[in-house]
């Protein structure tokens, strides 16, 4: 056999070995695809593309799939926003009332405990709003004179200031006439907005009714509903879902109850300061501070600004500054003492993450997004932290280990005899 014959006989085996190289890591189904032997791209192998480009392409299409899935979730939520808000409120009500229901369930049936807890909550809310209404009605006769005197004091202060800003009664009358003319020109738009607001009020009551209905079942049969859902999943993923659900509810309920307690404490302390200073409408302003505490970062400053404006218009500059200082001290007490004491380690988010979450939520869904952004991010991070597998942390600030210099072996020269 000649050398040419040997070369010719080995070429087919070499060619076949290299032609199926891309099928080495492919599965059985990929190997049976038509054209897989001659077309490596069928099984995801491309000899012409560099490795870094293949990696970037793989991450790119996976990222696009994740973004598309998130966008689909947001779109679906926007289509059933009323249901989403109702379920979210039901979770909030359940987190707040569950400790009371568990306490009463020790001495009575759970259904009766749930009913009593809901009645107590409704009476508490009704009592607060009744007190606010009575306080406003009792101060209404003197509010006009106090606000007129306060506004006159503010105008005098502006006129005597270095800026010498002068506002006369003619200017005020002109502003009133301008506002009246604007209302006449836009009466149709104002009426349409009023009808839209009436529809929004109806939606609010609908959401509250649906949330209350769901809360009853969450409080009475919540555990059974969760176990039923877990049993619908494949057996191999039930343990992970169960663990993730437990940490999610632990974080959400801790955040909700902690925020409620902190908001109530802020409202009570603000009411005490406003009453001591003698600011009118102390009860409504305290309720406003309580509501503002549910919106991280921006709720408390807005409530503080409104309270300062009322104090400025009613009592003057000094009382406004005292109110602002008092509410600022309440904020410091909340952030450094009350919140860590109440929430503990149930919610652990960096202030930068809170700021970014509130900003993103506000841009996406307005006030609603600002309210729900932080608890949703806290729950997602808690579940991710529990289910992920992390490597041991690296101490980048530690001193590097001293390098060991290689020892040179001394070889003895052979002796000559």
Automatic annotation (TrEMBL):
Residues 392-417 are annotated as: Disordered. GO terms for cellular component: plasma membrane. Its main location: membrane. It is a multi-pass membrane protein. The chain crosses the membrane at residues 55-75, 81-100, 112-134, 201-220, 260-279, 285-313, 320-343, 363-384. The keyword Transport applies. GO terms for biological process: transmembrane transport. Keywords: Cell membrane, Membrane, Transmembrane, Transmembrane helix, Transport. InterPro entries: AI-2E-like. It is found in: Cell membrane. The keyword Membrane applies. Residues 394-406 have a biased composition (Acidic residues). Belongs to the autoinducer-2 exporter (AI-2E) (TC 2.A.86) family. This is Permease. The lineage of its organism: Bacteria, Bacillati, Actinomycetota, Actinomycetes, Micrococcales.
């Amino acid at each position: 056999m000649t050398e040419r014959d040997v070369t010719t006989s080995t070429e087919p085996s070499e060619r076949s070995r290299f032609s199926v190289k891309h099928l080495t890591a492919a599965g059985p189904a990929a190997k049976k695809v038509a054209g897989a032997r001659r077309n490596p791209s069928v099984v995801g192998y491309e000899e012409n593309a560099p490795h870094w480009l293949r990696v970037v392409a793989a991450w790119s299409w996976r990222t696009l799939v994740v973004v598309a899935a998130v966008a689909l979730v947001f779109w679906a939520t926007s289509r059933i926003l009323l249901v989403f808000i109702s379920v979210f409120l039901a979770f909030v009500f359940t987190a707040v009332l569950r400790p009371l229901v568990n306490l009463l369930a020790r001495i009575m049936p759970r259904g009766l405990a749930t009913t009593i807890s809901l009645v107590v909550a409704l009476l508490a809310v009704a009592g607060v709003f009744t007190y606010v209404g009575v306080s406003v009605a009792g101060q209404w006769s003197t509010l006009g004179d106090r606000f007129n005197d306060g506004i006159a004091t503010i105008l005098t202060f502006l006129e005597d200031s270095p800026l010498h800003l002068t506002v006369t009664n003619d200017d005020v009358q002109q502003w009133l006439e301008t506002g009246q003319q604007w209302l006449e020109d836009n009466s149709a738009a104002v009426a349409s907005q009023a009808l839209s607001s009436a529809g929004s009020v109806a939606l609010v009551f609908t959401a509250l009714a649906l949330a209350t209905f769901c809360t009853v079942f969450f409080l009475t049969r919540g555990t059974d509903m969760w176990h039923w859902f877990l049993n619908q999943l494949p057996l191999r993923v039930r343990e992970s879902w169960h663990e993730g659900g437990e940490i999610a509810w632990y974080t959400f309920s801790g955040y909700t109850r902690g925020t409620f307690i902190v908001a109530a404490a802020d409202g009570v302390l603000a009411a005490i300061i406003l009453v001591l200073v003698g600011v009118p409408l102390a009860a409504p302003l305290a309720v406003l501070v309580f509501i503002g505490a549910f919106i991280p970062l921006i709720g408390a400053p807005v409530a503080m600004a409104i309270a300062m404006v009322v104090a400025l218009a009613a009592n003057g500059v000094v009382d406004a500054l005292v109110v602002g200082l008092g509410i600022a001290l309440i904020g410091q007490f909340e952030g450094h003492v009350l919140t860590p004491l109440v929430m503990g380690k149930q919610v652990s988010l960096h202030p930068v993450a809170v700021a970014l979450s509130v900003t993103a939520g506000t841009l996406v869904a307005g006030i609603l997004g600002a309210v729900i952004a932080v608890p949703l991010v806290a729950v997602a991070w808690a579940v991710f932290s529990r289910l992920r597998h992390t490597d041991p942390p690296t101490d980048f600030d530690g001193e590097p280990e001293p390098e060991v210099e290689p020892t040179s072996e001394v070889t003895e020269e052979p002796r000559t005899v």
